[in-house]
Write a structure and sequence with these properties.
The protein is mainly alpha-helical. It has one domain. The protein has four helices and no strands.
Length: 115
């Protein structure tokens, strides 16, 4: 069932992933992009732990969309789709790590509220 919370989480994860993907296309280093994805996964999952998988997939799809719609890299031999699929697969790893940490924090917070 589509609720306002799930729709907001999906839109935020897609936009965060697209921002991270565009950052990745223009930045010289990868650390900023990975940190952005991990923090986004953490925040989105801490806010809604049941939607962790949706947050991770939304972040990866946002990175894919940014690579498909973004500018072509000069001198690149890969197509936008190939580059996008590889970037999305790599983006899912830090997003999942951040989401796992967000689930742990949300679970710990829920236990503290119950006491």
């Amino acid at each position: 069932m589509l609720t306002a919370k799930s729709l907001l989480l999906t839109v935020l994860s897609l936009l965060s992933g697209a921002c991270a993907g565009l950052w990745d296309l223009t930045a010289a280093e990868l650390e900023g992009t990975l940190l952005m994805l991990a923090v986004s996964g953490f925040i989105l999952t801490a806010a809604a732990p049941r939607w962790a998988l949706s947050a991770v997939l939304g972040l990866a799809i946002g990175v894919l969309a940014a690579n498909l719609l973004g500018p072509d890299l000069p001198g690149s031999q890969m197509t936008g789709l190939d580059r996008g699929l590889i970037s999305a697969a790599v983006a899912a790893l830090p997003a999942a790590a951040g989401a796992a940490l967000g689930m742990l924090v949300a679970r710990a917070a829920a236990r503290l509220r119950c006491r």
